[in-house]
Write a structure and sequence with these properties.
Blueprint lengths: L4 H13 L7 H13 L4 H15 L4 H15 L5 H17 L3 H18 L2 H17 L3 H17 L3 H17 L3 H18 L2 H17 L3 H18 L2 H17 L3 H17 L3 H17 L3 H18 L2 H17 L3 H18 L1 H108 L3 H33 L3 H8 L5 H11 L4 H8 L3 H14 L9 H6 L2
Helix pairs in contact: 1-3, 2-3, 3-4, 3-5, 4-5, 5-6, 5-7, 6-7, 7-8, 7-9, 8-9, 8-19, 9-10, 9-11, 10-11, 11-12, 11-13, 12-13, 13-14, 13-15, 14-15, 15-16, 16-17, 17-18, 19-20
């Protein structure tokens, strides 16, 4: 069944506005499949699936991934490029959450290529966001800064507030991972201002979480917990399970620093339950590190060592450079405190190797460079826009006056010339066709007369054959009659078809394209009827009897599909 456009808009609006906490993921995904199966329009199918995927991405990433992948498969490789971009961006974000960085990078590059071809700045910015997020998790801060600043410029050009908030948050998080917490808070506060102006609860919850993380890093845990609680309230109202899980880990970590162990365990278990089910391995690795810190406070070296090793194992498997650096450093200190010098040295080497990979100093320098470039470009752009506005007002007045006058003159001149040329061309073609038709008609009449002469000669020869008694002479006359009739028929038709094709060169092709089963004799009859020859003239030219011609005409009408129609053959063929 084909969904009506009004119902489709209502359905997508419902998907966007219904709080996620009111939805049960499996039931919601099943209802999506049912709705899509009842929709006949491919574009509508894709739009419904993408709306559902967006709704589920922060609730059930696996279900969201299934819906976006389904949407992408329906769109194919060429159809609906803008919708394909949305589907790929969704898939890329989910792949990053699930630590599938290779797949996410492939998607990001495809999004970048397609959005560049379509000149879609918003989608191009999203491709840079994907690349930046991958580089952050893998500890390549220089590349992440470049990607996030590229995204920020593009989002500002198209006034995409949600993208601006995400890009500012990406830069902030990169600063945070390098230990530059004050700089990180500057970008978070900028993002918070945009979110407050736009009243975007989804982004506001994310930014408040980020601010809390920065205060926790500065050991201001009370402030951090305050922001976390505000973020939890927002995300609980929206039902965003993925963000709630991250918040639970963050607030649990803050409680751990305040030695509130029961609160830490409560929030840690909530977070780990969700991370494990959704296969968020980066978050799992970070959680293991926090749990090792918990056992360190409890002075339980055995469990502390166990969870640090788990964190290192996950981070090495998925190339989480930052987590690997932290885990290697923790193992170095643990073995050093136990007097196990060889093991301590081993993990010290790994710690320094991961630190070199993070390349902090170079990334810091690139951050400053990108900031200067960004601010300079913004100022230059403002100056340029002001000057352009002034110049534009002067130029537009001149252009309007001149273009109005020139356009009017050119339009009138072209219309006069065009009208005259069309009239002359029509007259020329009409004269040419009329002349050729007259010439062809004369040629046909000559052929008819020629045929009449041959028939007359044949009749006389027949009389001679009947009156002669010499058998050999009789046989010779008969052969002469047959030869004369055969050669005459072939020559007449060859000459006729040559002349006919000169005037109506596409007639046979058009006719055969529509009616490929026509025989050669039927094609000849069609040509004669196209010239509007009478039955008598056709009989004289073709050598058929009137009765035979009537049968041929009837069969031809059946093949042309007008046997039961009042349309005449001549009229029908004149339109071919």
């Amino acid at each position: 069944m084909l969904l009506k456009p009004v119902f489709l808009c209502f359905l997508i609006g419902l998907l966007v506005n219904v709080p996620l906490k009111a939805l049960e993921p499996k039931r919601f995904a099943d209802s999506m499949e049912k709705i899509v199966s009842q929709t006949g329009n491919k574009k509508q199918k894709i739009e419904i699936l993408l709306a559902g995927s967006k709704k589920l991405r922060l609730l059930d990433p696996d279900k969201a991934l299934d819906l976006s992948t389904w949407a992408l498969s329906i769109a194919g490789s060429k159809d609906y490029p803008e919708l394909r971009l949305q589907a790929m961006i969704n898939i890329g974000n989910i792949d990053i959450y699930k630590s599938k960085y290779k797949e996410a990078m492939e998607i990001a590059l495809k999004v970048k290529e397609l959005s560049t071809q379509l000149e879609n700045k918003k989608a191009l910015g999203e491709s840079f966001m994907l690349i930046g997020a991958i580089k952050v998790d893998q500890g390549d801060y220089s590349e992440s800064y470049e990607s996030f600043f590229n995204a920020l410029r593009l989002f500002e050009q198209v006034a995409y507030s949600e993208g601006i908030i995400k890009a500012l948050s990406g830069i902030s998080n990169t600063c945070y991972y390098q230990g530059n917490y004050n700089k990180a808070l500057i970008y978070d506060n900028n993002a918070l201002k945009v979110a407050m102006v736009t009243k975007d609860s989804l982004q506001l919850g994310m930014v408040m979480t980020n601010v809390g993380v920065k205060y926790a890093a500065k050991n201001q845990f009370s402030k951090a917990i305050d922001f976390y609680q505000k973020a939890i309230a927002i995300n609980m109202r929206l039902g965003l399970q993925t963000r709630l899980a991250a918040l639970y880990l963050n607030i649990g970590t803050a409680y751990l620093q305040l030695n509130r162990y029961d609160d830490f365990i409560l929030y840690y278990n909530r977070a780990m339950a969700f991370f494990t089910v959704t296969e968020a391995w980066h978050s799992v690795a970070v959680s293991h590190l926090q749990y090792s810190a918990y056992y360190k406070k409890l002075k339980d070296p055995e469990n502390e060592l166990k969870y640090v090793r788990l964190a290192l194992s996950e981070s090495m498997k998925y190339k989480f450079r930052r987590v690997a650096y932290q885990a290697a450093g923790a193992l170095h200190m643990i073995y050093l405190s136990e007097g196990k010098i060889d093991s301590a040295y081993k993990y010290s080497l790994l710690e320094h190797a991961e630190k070199d990979t993070l390349n902090s100093e170079k990334a810091q320098a690139r951050l400053s460079l990108f900031e200067l470039e960004y601010n300079y470009n913004n100022k230059q752009q403002e100056i340029k826009i002001k000057q352009q506005r002034k110049d534009f007002i002067v130029i537009i007045i001149i252009i309007i006056a001149l273009s109005g006058l020139i356009t009017t003159i050119l339009f009138l001149s072209r219309q006069i010339v065009k009208t005259k040329n069309i009239r002359l061309e029509k007259q020329r073609l009409s004269d040419e066709v009329e002349f050729k038709n007259k010439e062809l008609t004369l040629g046909v009449m000559n052929l008819i007369k020629k045929n009449e002469l041959i028939v007359d000669i044949s009749n006389r020869l027949i009389l001679m054959e009947q009156n002669t008694t010499d058998p050999s002479f009789k046989q010779e006359i008969i052969q002469l009659i047959r030869s004369l009739q055969r050669n005459s028929s072939e020559e007449i038709w060859e000459e006729f078809e040559v002349r006919f094709k000169q005037v109506h060169n596409s007639f046979y092709k058009s006719l055969l394209d529509r009616f490929p089963n026509l025989s050669p004799s039927e094609l000849k009859l069609c040509a004669l009827l196209r010239l509007n020859l009478s039955t008598k003239e056709i009989c004289e030219l073709s050598g058929q009897r009137p009765a035979s011609l009537d049968v041929a005409r009837y069969r031809l009408r059946k093949k042309l599909g007008i046997a039961n129609s009042q349309v005449s053959l001549v009229t029908f063929l004149s339109q071919v």
